[in-house]
Amino acid sequence: MRSHPLRFLFSFWRRSRMLSPQQLHAQLSQAEPPLVLDVRTLEEFWAGHIVGALSLSVDELEHRLTALAPCRERLVVTV
């Protein structure tokens, strides 16, 4: 039996914590920066976003989760 696609995302949330803007800035300067997922609409993304962020709206998330599988062990930040 195949698991629900959102189960993968829930594995991220179980390990989640809030980051301040200063903490995120420090993380982004690391040798292996976090993957920044901007889950807002594309219009909101283009109005202003974090450089290097991946636009992946909440509506698309379930359909593109398998593409995120290689990032399972990487820090993922959602905005």
How many β strands by DSSP? 3
Order of helices and strands: HHEHEHE
Mean pLDDT across the residues is: 80
Q: Classify the oligomer.
A: single chain
Strand order of the largest sheet: 2-1-3
Strand residue percentage: 5-15%
Distance between the termini: 32 Å
Could you explain the architecture of this structure?
The protein contains four helices and three strands; from the N terminus they run H-H-E-H-E-H-E. The model has no long low-confidence stretch (mean pLDDT about 80). It is globular. The chain has a three-stranded parallel beta sheet with strand order 2-1-3, with no helix packed on it. By secondary structure, the chain is of the alpha/beta class.
Keywords:
79 residues; 11% strand; three-stranded parallel beta sheet; alpha/beta
Task: Give the helices and strands, then pairings.
Blueprint: H1 6-14, H2 21-28, E1 35-38, H3 42-47, E2 54-55, H4 58-68, E3 76-78
Parallel strand pairs: 1-2, 1-3
Task: Provide a compact summary of the structure.
The chain has 4 helices and 3 strands; from the N terminus they run ααβαβαβ.
